[in-house]
Amino acid sequence: MTADTMDSLFNRLIRLAAEAGLLGVEESTSFGNPALKVAGKAFVSVKSNDTLVLSIAIPDKEHLIEMAPEIYFQTDHYRGWPSLPVRAANIGDGELRQRLINAWLFRAPKRLAATFSRQA
């Protein structure tokens, strides 16, 4: 795992979050990995050079895994938790931007999320 690859992936997340107009995004870490947070809660993190982890409602998680198993997958570690591993190389910027919006909405305080919804 190289720092350059993880930095590049994290910079991609930062860029896409900014393009999406997500408010209150903080660059931070989660369990030692680079992460973006809103109101102190991680909504996406870089797990490795190849893998991102998104916050997501469990029913939505199962749907995405069925819809695109080449992108989204499950491990025992994340089973039953509102977190979804993503193969970073297999997801385009457009889809990743939408997943970041959804993850942000899932974690953002209701008042902040409502403000974003009015802008979107």
What does this molecule look like?
This protein is an alpha+beta fold. The chain has one domain: Aspartate Aminotransferase, domain 1 (Alpha-Beta Complex), CATH 3.90.1150.30. Helix content is 44%, strand content 23%. It contains four helices and five strands, in the order H-E-E-E-E-H-E-H-H. It has a five-stranded antiparallel beta sheet. The longest helix has 18 residues. It is globular. The model has no long low-confidence stretch (mean pLDDT 93).
Shape: globular
* SS-based class: alpha+beta
Overall tally of structural domains:
1
Low-confidence stretches: none
| CATH topology (fold) name | Aspartate Aminotransferase, domain 1
Number of helices: 4
| Helix percent band | 40-55%
**Sheet with most strands: strand arrangement:** 1-2-3-4-5
* Annotated CATH architecture: Alpha-Beta Complex
